[in-house]
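Severity: low
Component: inverse-folding endpoint
Summary: output formatting inconsistent between runs
Steps to reproduce: submit the following structure tokens with default settings.
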């Protein structure tokens, strides 16, 4: 195995069939990898003869031919992620499963399997039945399986009729093979106009709701989705982020290719680059919203209805936003002219209420935008400007009470999935973190970097956004170059040897009108 250090671009493999028509299979996979910034490699399982209206031949390669491609790739182009598509017979399934077992023994590699066995036209794509080998040997080597409803029925032998049966079958498939399951919903609309995918990872069910696109050009959507997810995994995106970005990539391809004419039948989905428009991204279903019933959620009686729309702030750009752990720090920074502040007390002693009351009093006398972290009841009772909550607080806090008290609400997010989820509440601002590694809190699994930050800012150019995590004075210019309007800092100020000087420099960067960058 050569060291991945020799490669600047993440390497992603596709193990799949060639589509001579260029719309699906390896051809769609390689276009997707390139579009999303990865280097694609292929191991071809079958040389299909097809166009947009017919599949004439499958032409499976021998397992020796398949294995020689895999072994050759492994020696020089070790993958960061793998997508698997058409495996043409049981021998191929076993050969790939064996290969993956050995490969994953060398290094963990996320494997995404799109279980292709029957074409949308209904033509069988495999030589003989591969069900037993797929279930017992292949899926246990995979991290995610992306069946459509027909494929889910095939793999579970369960009849799918509605949301409950989709979830039951996904759970069943997970129990059988241990891989997370993303059920794609192109074949059944649970609500008119909504094309929704279900993710079950053994812990949590999530529905990603997309809008129907009227288009004949849908060939290759399954291949493209699984490849986009593999590419995102190779780029370091966690599973849920990879799924929502993958779905947005396909949505963009459907939308922009809708009026193209390629062949007489179903033309290919398009490949149009990284999705940067919110309209292409799915909505993440939120517990408590009315339509959750149609998706098999809201089954508990005590579920709080979703609350949406919190008080707006006087500015979309808050500029510098220090987060401090004491009333003393609050006072010092207010004295220096800071306008936006957060009180974040993690080890509350006896006098918590008193500290919040003092903080609110300072906030009033200096006309601060003062947010209280975590303690939303106290924030309401004491009349703070706003409250800041984490994702895990969203189910526990009384959002309706926060909303009706007129308090502003900020919500933490860590990646695309959490951003889309939190946006469903339309809070006063969304925080995005951790941008860089930080010693203030263990965020090592949730680092975003400035490229991802810029992509998230592009999705929500008109919504107040705050960047947080590891932001030092030196890093502020590249953070604000993303278009984010607010920068939250802890240690840059509280650990500074000269906080007044650091503060002045931060303010110069963040509150000087000329330093403001319009969102992209
Ligand atoms: C502006 C801002 N962004 C994010 C956070 C983190 O909040 P949370 O996820 O609730 O984590 P804790 O701060 O409670 O550890 C924040 N406080 N402020
Ligand atoms: C409190 C906190 N929340 C984060 C998030 O990403 O949600 S990062 C973070 C720590 C920020 O401290 P510093 O500026 O010292 O890195
Ligand atoms: Mg919190």
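Observed output (run 2 of 3):
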């Amino acid at each position: 195995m050569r060291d991945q250090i020799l490669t600047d671009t993440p390497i992603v493999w596709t193990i799949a069939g060639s589509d001579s028509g260029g719309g699906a299979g390896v051809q769609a996979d390689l276009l997707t990898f390139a579009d999303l910034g990865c280097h694609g490699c292929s191991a071809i399982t079958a040389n299909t003869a097809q166009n947009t209206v017919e599949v004439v031949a499958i032409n499976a390669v021998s397992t020796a031919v398949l294995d020689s491609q895999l072994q050759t790739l492994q020696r020089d182009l070790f993958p960061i992620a793998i997508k698997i598509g058409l495996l043409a017979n049981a021998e191929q399934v076993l050969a790939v499963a064996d290969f993956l077992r050995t490969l994953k023994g060398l290094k963990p590699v996320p494997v995404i399997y799109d279980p292709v066995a029957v074409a949308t036209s209904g033509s069988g794509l495999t030589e003989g039945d591969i069900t037993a080998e797929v279930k017992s040997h292949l899926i246990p080597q995979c991290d995610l399986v992306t069946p459509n409803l027909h494929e889910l029925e095939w793999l579970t032998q369960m009849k799918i009729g509605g949301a409950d049966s989709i979830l039951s079958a996904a759970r069943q498939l997970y129990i059988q093979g241990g891989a997370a399951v993303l059920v794609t919903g192109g074949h059944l609309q649970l609500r008119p106009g909504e094309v929704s995918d279900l993710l079950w990872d053994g812990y949590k069910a999530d529905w990603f709701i997309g809008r129907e696109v009227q288009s004949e050009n849908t060939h290759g959507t399954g291949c493209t989705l699984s490849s986009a997810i593999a590419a995102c995994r190779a780029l370091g995106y966690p599973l849920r982020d990879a799924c929502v970005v993958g779905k947005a990539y396909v949505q963009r391809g459907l939308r922009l290719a809708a009026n193209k004419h390629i062949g007489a039948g179903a033309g290919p989905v398009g490949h149009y680059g990284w999705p940067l428009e919110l309209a292409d991204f799915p909505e993440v279903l939120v517990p408590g919203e009315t339509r959750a019933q149609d998706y098999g959620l809201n089954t508990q009686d005590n579920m709080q209805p979703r609350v949406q729309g919190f008080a707006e702030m006087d500015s979309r750009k808050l500029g510098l936003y220090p987060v401090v752990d004491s009333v003393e720090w609050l006072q010092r920074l207010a004295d220096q002219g800071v306008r936006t502040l957060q009180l974040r007390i993690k080890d509350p002693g006896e006098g918590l209420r008193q500290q919040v009351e003092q903080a609110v009093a300072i906030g009033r006398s200096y006309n601060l935008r003062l947010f209280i972290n975590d303690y939303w009841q106290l924030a309401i009772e004491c009349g703070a400007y706003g409250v800041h909550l984490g994702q895990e607080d969203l189910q526990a806090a009384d959002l309706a009470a926060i909303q009706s008290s007129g308090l502003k609400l900020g919500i933490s997010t860590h990646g695309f999935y959490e951003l889309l989820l939190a946006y469903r509440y339309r809070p006063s601002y969304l925080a995005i973190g951790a941008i860089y590694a930080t010693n203030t809190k263990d965020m090592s699994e949730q680092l975003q970097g400035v490229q991802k930050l810029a992509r998230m800012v592009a999705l929500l150019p008109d919504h107040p956004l705050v960047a947080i995590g590891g932001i030092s004075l030196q890093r502020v210019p590249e953070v604000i170059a993303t278009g984010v309007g607010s920068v939250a800092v802890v240690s840059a100020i509280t650990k500074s040897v000269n906080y007044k000087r650091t503060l002045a420099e931060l303010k110069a960067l963040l509150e000087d009108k000329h330093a403001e960058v319009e969102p992209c």
